[in-house]
Amino acid sequence: MNKAVIVTGGTSGLGLELCKKIKAIGYSIITVSRNEKKIDEDIKYYQGDISDEDFVNGFINEACKEFDIVGVINNACEGFFAMPTEIHSEHIEKCLKGVKGMMYISAATLREKSEKDLIIVNILSTAAQKGKKMEAAYCMAKFAQRGYTEALKDAYKGTSVKVNGVYTGGMNTNLWSESRDYISA
Prior knowledge:
Layout lengths: L2 E6 L4 H12 L3 E6 L10 E4 L5 H14 L1 E7 L14 H24 L5 E6 L12 H20 L5 E6 L19
Parallel strand pairs: 1-2, 1-4, 2-3, 4-5, 5-6
Helix pairs in contact: 2-3, 3-4
């Protein structure tokens, strides 16, 4: 069975670059995105909403029948960038999709793998380390993901499940497409 890595948000930006690099070192790639497939790479692709637990459970179950999943990179996220008083419920829900997705995909894969032999890498951003006035909603989500990452590390300490958080920052990706007045290209 082919060894594979799941990359969420793998159709653009950092996720797409991760897919290319991981494939280049010999792993099969499984990606999931809310966007239509935009890449020509030979990868297994699922289109759907990672904040939908039933969708996640279904695609993880299917992927595990076809591949030996050795890693998960939780990269997908959505952001909203504005002053705190401009944040409303729809912006909070938008940002929380990545939190839910990270939790659902990690848990579903851990269950399918019997909580063994898995590497989970969570892309957290520097927004998980320090609050920023125009990033309150995004920071809220990233701080939640950081807390979940730390809880996973603690839960699987000393096992064959390895968990890492990566604190990226300052990338010119489409995450900022609606915020060019705040962050210039």
